[in-house]
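Researcher: Quick one. two chains, 573 residues in total.
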Amino acid sequence: MEKAIKKWWPLFVLPTMAAFAIGFLVPFVWGLYLSFCNFTTINDAVFTGLENYVMAFTDPSSVFTHALWYTALFSALSTVIINLLSLTVAILLVRGIRGTNIFRTVFFMPNLIGGIVLGWLWQVLINGVLEKYGVTIVTNEWYGFWSLILVMTWQQLGYMMIIYISGLQSIPEELSEAASIDGANAWQTLRHVKLPMLMPSITICTFLTITNGFKLFDQNLALVGQNSPNSQLMALDIYNTFYGRTGWAGAGQAKAVVFCIIVVAIALIQQKLTHSREVQQ
Amino acid sequence: MANEKSNLKRSTRVANGILSVVFSVISLAYVYPLFIMLVNSFKKKAYISRAPFTIPLPGDANWTRMFVGTDNYATGIQKTEFPMAFVYSLVITVLSVFVILLCCSMTAWYINRVHSKLSKGVYALCLFSMVVPFQMVMFTLSKIANVLHLNTPLGIVVIYLGFGAGLAVFMFAGYMKSCPIAIEESAMIDGCNPVRTFFSIVLPVLQPTYVSTAILEAMWIWNDYLLPYLVLDLKKYKTIPIAVQYLKGGYGSVDMGAMMAMLVLAIVPIIVLYLCCQKYIVSGVMAGAVKG
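Model:
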């Protein structure tokens, strides 16, 4: 059978792979190469070695180094907050209280709304509150920071909650019962029985929240805009370097490569760390 | 003992009742931003930034000052050409999702049933592409799209297929691992070629994965901003997120009235769709998470 299928690869694999090459592979390899070049369009690239990388890190306005720690802090904090809250909500919503379905529906809803739309929606609300204190969302970096945390928590809580709920529901009833017969209280059951069984869900949710945090762009753009470099995450900073500063395209591509390496490394480390804590069922 | 048990039950009941009330309050707070947006879309633009939380009511002193009826919608639609943006968003999303489902399920079947270096390489690349941030490829991708004339709603489908392939192949391949191979084998022994085997045997079995993958990809493509912004010929084609962002204009001044109205138009169809197919959407997300 394998042989029979094998010769049909032009039909089964080629269309996807051709599109994959156009949409991902070629741009990726080319982008990697361009990060070592000086260029303004794609036809005038001259190899310059590591110059772009030096330029990105020694930029006198230090937007990139700022964006680096700003993004790392944002991603770490939003991961912790979103996961703690969504796990708590999930635990409370599997008890079968009245209105559970409505609550789940409501909490999940913001996930379907696009980042640009969400950003503008919240900009009005947040600026409306801040105005009473005579400041706006771009007054300093921390207003933007906490606004982003608030918006992302509001949006992603429901998504992670759904994953945690399905994780909790797949834990066999007997395990909790056995624990309570052995004299474990609710907290001990949660800590020593449910949480270890939930590790696969925790792996997925932390993976999603960390990478979403690092890659965040739309909400950042709509919420604080392009003119406040202090509140920019890496994705937005890279975009501005490309399209907002003449002569900086090479540095932009170098930043993108650094960004890419960081995201891939974090994804790998995170998978290793949480996978190793998963228990076999 | 019996008494103790009923006491316990009563205390759980009380606790659950309190929880219900608490969650009701939180739920109201959760939809409050959407409600405020709806209210503001009927207010005069000067009052949106200044008093976003004020709700004008008929007979109120604020009513005549603030309420502008559907004016914001009229200006917004005129400025953004929202109906066209809606059509482009719809066409791009539907076509892309259809192509992604068809091509990627075929690829996933191939790499699952044929154990070759090609299969392994394709799968590894798909996984890798899921993690790489878009900024890494955005500049070169937009140039390539231009050169190959993929800057139309039809052309962008090719790019979405390339970019969405990672998730889709991953989802299909994950599901197929647990599918028995025996039926396919007997179909091929009976003389079905691989194409017919795929379409009449494998495709029906994959149905649940088609639904969940379609939902995940559609949620992404419908809301995507930067990719279409960089790829499409913006003079001719704008999707909804692009149209909304375009209201900002070049000088940073925003007509907040029109903005609120367009946000409402962007959100309402999604929420209606969500309330209709909630079951599928939620199970799609769950399926995606299990595979993840």
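The mean pLDDT of chain A is 90.
Researcher: Thanks, that's what I needed.
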